[in-house]
Design brief:
- The longest helix is centred in the C-terminal third of the chain and has 21 residues.
- The protein has a six-stranded antiparallel beta barrel with strand order 3-4-10-7-6-11.
- It is built from eight helices and 21 strands.
- Helix 6 packs across helix 7.
- The protein starts with a helix and ends in a 5-residue tail after the last helix.
- The chain has 370 residues and is of the alpha+beta class.
């Protein structure tokens, strides 16, 4: 159905890499019809992340195929990669309510990092500060919530009227608000619409949505199946982060036409067809990080230097250095191991492996010790 095709496009735009296809209600048709549907679906997903993935016909009524589906789901879970726990926490809000005796509670999916009770928090884009009083996951109180979980967060010091759907709860000082973002914009192959320079679109990011003007940086129109660098100029501030995914829908009628990835969350206003701007975005898209800063942090090994010590080593002013360091922390290349002290992700990985090895050796030598 058209909505299913649209959802497949959205999943692709959001960077989903794995999955499977389930064909339901097979008890209602002849086996030959099911075989035809399997072939039709296989052709439909060709060229998407679902190409070559399992296609499982099932019937909830008779139970046919459910055991096979369970095995496939178990295999997917077993090979799934962990969410990044090392970056600052971030939770886009999709519901707000008040609880007598507790105050304001917000819910959402924790997309990055870990939340702890008593952590300081910031509501973006408003900048209102709060404190995490309580956390719940699936109705149970927890002290820590992890990326990937659905979380209810009880915020102290915040009124319900201070929060709206689409706001983000984040670690203070880690998110930018922006009225412009530089992006790699893709027009879906199935959109049947051409995105013109200056088009108005609805931008969907996290749980927020805003009207946006599309400025195509190297062409006048973007046809279905094409992609290019663009700048999206928003009607209201939005809390975003470089490397985030987004979706755009046509202004009217409301239908999904494309999306992509954010390359710069706080850019300057660009002129079109500027070769310097295009070259800079090409570097950002390739995933290059500030090698000097990363190398400096790595050179300290396990010493977890302060920001001041790092800026002195590189002879970079502290004001400019802070934003560079923050970008690397937000992308997970560097970890704030202790407040204001930093270590590279690669070094942390090597420490983890070394600690595991030392513990194993210790318990082999001392099998009766706790």
């Amino acid at each position: 159905m058209p909505q299913t095709v649209e959802h497949l496009g959205i999943l692709s735009l959001l960077g989903i890499k794995d999955g499977l296809v389930v064909i339901t209600k097979t008890d209602m048709v002849e086996p030959l019809w099911t075989e035809m549907m399997v072939e039709e679906v296989r052709e439909r997903v060709r060229g998407t992340f679902l190409e070559g993935k399992p296609i499982v016909p099932v019937s909830a009524y008779t139970g046919d195929g459910l055991d096979v589906l369970r095995i496939h789901l178990q295999n997917m879970v077993a090979t799934a990669t962990d969410k990044n726990m090392r970056v600052p926490f971030r939770l886009p809000i999709d519901r707000i309510f008040s609880v007598d005796g507790f105050g304001t509670v917000v819910t959402g999916t924790l997309i990055e990092g870990c939340m702890h009770i008593d952590d300081a928090a910031e509501l973006m884009p408003s900048g209102i500060t709060a404190k995490i009083r309580n956390l719940q996951v699936h109705g149970a109180d927890v002290r820590i919530a992890y990326a990937g979980q659905r979380v209810a967060v009880n915020l102290a010091g915040v009124k319900k009227s201070d929060v709206t759907r689409g706001d983000t709860v984040a670690k203070p000082g880690t998110l930018h608000t922006s009225m412009m973002i530089d992006v790699r914009l893709e027009n879906l192959r199935e959109s049947h619409r051409t995105i013109l320079n200056g088009s108005q679109v609805h931008l969907f990011h996290g749980s927020s949505v805003a009207l946006s003007k599309v400025v195509l940086l190297d062409r006048d129109e973007l046809r279905p199946g094409e992609s290019c660098f663009a700048q999206l100029r928003l009607s209201e501030p939005m809390a975003v982060k470089t490397a985030d995914r987004f979706v755009v829908r046509f202004y009217s009628p409301l239908e999904t036409i494309g999306g992509g990835v954010i390359l710069d969350d706080t850019p300057a206003k660009h002129k079109r067809n500027d070769t310097t701007v295009l070259a800079s975005l090409q570097i950002r898209e390739s995933g290059s990080v500030d090698a000097r800063v990363l190398q400096a942090v790595q050179s300290f090994g396990c010493m977890i230097p302060t920001e001041k010590k790092l800026s002195e080593k590189l002879s970079i002013g502290e004001e400019n250095f802070h934003s560079q360091l923050l970008d690397l922390v937000n992308t997970g290349h560097i970890v704030e191991a202790l407040p204001g002290r930093y270590i590279s992700s690669d070094t942390l990985d090597s420490i983890w492996a070394d600690c595991t090895k030392r513990l194993q050796q210790y318990h082999m030598t001392n099998p009766l010790h706790a």
